[in-house]
Write a structure and sequence with these properties.
Blueprint lengths: L7 H12 L3 E4 L5 H13 L5 E2 L18 E4 L8 H18 L5 E9 L5 E4 L9 E8 L12 E4 L5 E4 L6 E5 L5 E3 L6 E9 L4
Antiparallel strand pairs: 1-9, 2-3, 3-4, 4-11, 5-10, 6-9, 6-11, 7-8, 7-10
Helix pairs in contact: 1-3
């Protein structure tokens, strides 16, 4: 896959899924070389990661009983992330054209879960704030096995659930206000790029 160009078929597949069931999983969205490159970048910046918390502003706190990941936010002008940001800008433009979602920006970060870490069931929209519209997750785990764990468990509208194994290169996209989800523990470190397309606050 060209690092700067997304296939129209993939863009249409994502748009159709969001307009229908509201979620989709795209295996091999990133090729092996890109997964390795981004995984290496995350490790090179290890010292810049900070423990993730829950809550906003004055209510923000680190809670090991709720989530155990550390994160590093991605800047729009980060030269090492040019290709990754360009892919996501292309998807944003497509979703705005096809679904009229009014997506204004992407906020995303590297997320690292050490062995045994988890994130309890939650919804990506904060209370009384609907600016997060679409959730995206790209997995950066070379040679991951299902037995390594770390699945993303998505709770669907009909009461069922689906577990997504974080194989390197897999993309998960879903509507942020519809699907509660959780991250299950893994037996080794689990790395991803996770974020949200946002609309402007009214």
């Amino acid at each position: 896959m060209n690092n700067l160009v997304l296939d129209e078929t993939i863009l249409d597949q994502i748009g159709d899924a969001l307009a229908g069931p509201g979620w989709t999983v795209i295996p091999n969205f990133l090729d092996t070389a890109t997964v390795t490159e981004l995984h290496t970048l995350a490790h090179a910046r290890r010292e810049q990661f900070n423990r993730a918390g829950v809550g906003r502003e004055a209510g923000h706190q680190v809670r090991n009983d709720i989530r155990g990941d550390s994160v590093l936010w991605v800047e729009e002008d980060d030269s090492a992330m040019q290709s990754a940001n360009a892919r996501m800008a292309m998807l944003q433009q497509h979703l705005n054209r096809s679904l009229f979602l009014g997506l204004a920006e992407l906020e995303w970060h590297f997320a690292s879960y050490p062995a045994g870490a988890f994130y309890q069931r939650h919804l990506d929209q904060h209370r009384q704030q609907d600016t997060r519209v679409v959730t995206i997750v790209q997995y950066l785990n070379p040679q991951w096995q299902e037995s390594d764990g770390g699945q993303l468990r998505i709770y669907l509208d009909d009461g069922s659930q689906v577990d997504v194994t974080p194989y390197g290169g897999t993309l998960v996209v879903f509507m942020s206000d519809r699907f509660e989800h959780e991250v299950l523990p893994a037996i080794r470190e689990r790395v991803s790029l996770t974020g949200w397309y946002r609309r402007r606050a009214v």
